[in-house]
Amino acid sequence: MPTEILMPALSPTMEEGKLAKWHVKVGDKVTSGDVIAEIETDKATMEVEAVDEGVVTKLLVDEGTEGVKVNVPIAVLQGEDEPKAKANGGATASTGPAAKPAPKVSAAAPAAVAMASDPSIAPGTPMVTMTVREALREAMAEEMRRDPAVFLMGEEVGQYQGAYKISQGLLDEFGPKRVIDTPITEQGFAGLGVGAAFGGLRPIVEFMTWNFAMQAIDQIINSAGKTLYMSGGQMGCPIVFRGPNGASARVAAQHSQSYGSWYAHVPGLKVVAPYFAADAKGLLKAAIRDPNPVIFLENEIVYGRSFDVPKVDDFVLPIGKARVVREGRDVTLVSYSITVGLVLQAAEALAKEGIEAEIIDLRSLRPLDTETVIASVKKTNRIVTVEEGWPICGIASEIATQVMEQAFDHLDAPPTRVTGKDVPMPYAANLEKLALPSVDDVIAAAKAVLYRS
Amino acid sequence: MAKADTASRAAAPPRPMPGKDALLRYYREMLLIRRFEEKAGQLYGMGLIGGFCHLYIGQEAVVVGMQAAIGEGDQVITAYRDHGHMLACGMDPAGVMAELTGRSGGYSKGKGGSMHMFSREKNFFGGHGIVGAQLPLGTGLAFSNKYKGTDRVCLTYFGDGAANQGQVYESFNMAELWKLPVVYVIENNQYAMGTAISRSSAETHLYKRGASFNIPGEEVDGMDVLAVRDAGDRAVKWCREGKGPIILEMKTYRYRGHSMSDPAKYRTREEVDHVRETADPIDHVRKMLLESKLSSEDELKEIDKDIRAVVNHAAEFAQSSPEPDPSELWTDTIH
Q1: B330 in a structural domain
Q2: Residue B314 pLDDT > 70, yes or no?
Q3: Which tens digit of pLDDT belongs to each residue from A275-323?
Q4: Which CATH number describes the domain made up of A2-87?
Q5: How far is B324 from chain A (nearest CA, A)?
Q6: Residue B142 with chain A: CB contacts under 8 Å
């Protein structure tokens, strides 16, 4: 009986990939464990192994084809002992996971409606489209070219080319002295980075994800964050801690946490959490140049999204400035990182119902640009803050407090929060979806503060 | 609990007598630390110093001997029992004491206190309050030396208590893996707060703790400034030659409690007295100076007098220096 070989999902967030190379051709006999193809995603190149034995009878996807969806048949295998297989009820196994594909967050950036231009970018600046991943990589490469004291260290940043491919190519360009693979020892290498910063270097410390940085949080807060103050201003700590933050997909409680409010709580740190590629680039360059410890919160799902980035020689953005992404008169929607994408989609839907939302992307969480938020609230009189983090003591709670302290008389409705639910992240696909904020949640909250159903 | 281990001093090979200048310098530096700490204890009792205050009395030979082994540009980092290290680095006793009293003339403008002081000028990188946190930091300073291509060495001090922290071994691993120029100086004063080393450590010979990382270690009589200096010389040479990290376990002893509020229930008065009488690091050098006739009672008395004057001045400055201006509350959080 013929068996279809399906395009496998090789990471939790993979939806499609490029069929880079076939290692077999029609008529070849394969046995379990043979490498039959190579698949490339924006994260990595991986080999596909055969699970079943048989003869390849069809290759359904040409070598070099981009955007092959997960679970699409890519080849057909004919079992050699067909009658026997039939007698046994037929082999249905295929390469790749047998489970139904989980619903996934789209890697494509949601279309923005009537985006406002960034006032920090001069009108008419030529743009180039790139992914957030490429923007981050360019930021690091440019700063490493500019300043020999800048180096990158972390798990798998070198030879592996980055667990999420952010550092791809950097080892080749800068060598092992400046692109340093560390042992799995977060507290150790975070502290080593802080010591190196005390010693006059400019470390970029990559955490494979921020979840693992909890092992290192003492060094980040007590050593990096407080030493300037404790030394009466003698000892700066110019260091960037960066990596993906928040939920990925289906990796459950210990690997799906959003640390915005944890670090934003600490005086002595700066905290940046961009969404767009231009912000990722301009703010990472600023973070590397900053004389203070900067917490740079990225998002794995956003890495592959493409946006316009100014095509200028040295694009640096100021830390601590929010951006009005979309202007509107009816309600202010404040967000940062991945949920900016949700808010953009919600605004599009709201516009169809005649509700014009103003969208603010905070970009930085400390310093927090409350001025931009307050100015918007004074115009719209209503505010919803959207974030993936937990509700208790979150960034949204802080925004609500600031708004009430500074613009209470301008409010026509209570400041409202749309957040991740107050539970550890569940694994089950349906529960995970429920735990995360959704476009519908944002639409509902916006209507609620407008007293519309 | 065993007495301070002085066996290795007796067993040490005979070495040439150091010159008079060197011996007098060690004597002076150790005495400065002793008198400074006694005064700090006194000011604490008067309520002029607050919070935690960990005195270094008894351990003076360690920092003085190690300081003699390093040179210009080498770095020093330690934990919170740090007054001795700062004085040995040449930091101004008045500035250190004023920090203890929380005054604007202190090294951190009164914002750091006993446990958190720094001097970029003297390459003293703290003064860290979290047990063991200075290990990765010192390793990072050594990393910066290697990265910059200098031959500078970082002395990273920690106690027998910190020796059981995980980040010690994370640091050991990276330091040896990358051959970083760091001397790990373990000040084994035999008590982690109130817990004797035999009650906290499966392996009490701490110099062996680098074995599984291929880091050599040496046990040193930390009550003998000359033994410390010699071991320091060997260790610093090892690092400067690019051979990577090395561990020196200083067998030492603190006469005072862990901090000022120590009930001292975990050891006997007799044990402390025995060490004071038989192994005091300052008496040791004093005896050497007098027996060899390199110095005289009168000359040493003059030094004692000088030191008392320095310490009294420091204490006066620490009381007359104004408290930090309230506006200082908001400075230095961020550049």
Answers
A1: no
A2: yes
A3: 999 999 999 999 999 999 999 999 999 999 999 999 999 999 999 999 9
A4: 2.40.50.100
A5: 11
A6: 195
CA–CA gap between residue B62 and residue A46 (Å, rounded): 55
Whether A134 is a known active-site residue: answer: no
CATH class, A323-449 region: alpha beta
**Phi, psi (5° rounding) for residue A75?**
-160, 165
A181-230 pLDDT, tens digit per residue, is 999 999 999 999 999 999 999 999 999 999 999 999 999 999 999 999 99
Other CB atoms within 10 Å distance of the CB of residue B257: 18
How do residues A49-83 score in pLDDT, each as one tens digit? 888 888 999 999 999 999 999 989 999 988 866 55
A186 catalytic? Reply is yes
* Greatest CA separation for chain A: 82
Query: Comparing C-alpha atoms, which of A199, A150, A186, A152 is closest to residue A171?
Result: A152
Among A144, A180, A222, A230, the strongest candidate for a mutation testing the B interface, having the largest count of B CBs within 10 A, is: A230
Which positions 54-93 of A are in contact with B (Cβ < 8 Å)?
none
A174 contact partners, CB below 8 Å, separation of at least 6: A141, A144, A151, A152
Residues 150-189 of B with CB under 8 A from A: 166-167, 170-171, 173-174, 177
What CATH number is given to the structural domain containing B209?
A: 3.40.50.970
Edge to edge, the sheet with strand B182-188 lists B75-77, B154-159, B182-188, B246-251, B217-221
Is B286 part of a structural domain of the chain? Answer: yes
Q: Do A188 and B171 touch (CB under 8 A)?
A: yes
Preferred mutation among A189, A229, A265, A271 to probe B, highest tally of B CBs within 10 A: A229
Pairing of strands A270-272, A364-366: antiparallel
> Which of A187, A189, A195 lies closest to B138 in CB terms?
A195
**pLDDT for position A50:** 85
Q: How far apart are CA B228 and CA B226, in angstroms?
A: 5
For A9-18, A231-240, A422-431, B145-154, which range has the lowest pLDDT when averaged over its residues? Answer: A9-18
Pairwise CA distance, residues A309 & A142, whole Å:
15
H or E element in which residue A186 lies:
helix A186-198
DSSP secondary structure letters along B26-91: HHHHHHHHHHHHHHHHHHHHTTSS-S-----TT-HHHHHHHHHH--TT-EEE--S--HHHHHHTT-
Rounded-to-integer distance, Cα B234 and Cα B197, Å? 27
Count Cβ atoms below 10 Å from residue A289 Cβ, excluding itself: 17
Q: What is the CATH number of domain A127-310?
A: 3.40.50.970
Instruction: Please give the residue of chain B at the shortest CA–CA distance from A234.
Output: B120
Judge contact between A284 and A139, C-beta under 8 A: yes
Q: Phi and psi at residue A357, in whole multiples of 5°?
A: -90, 140
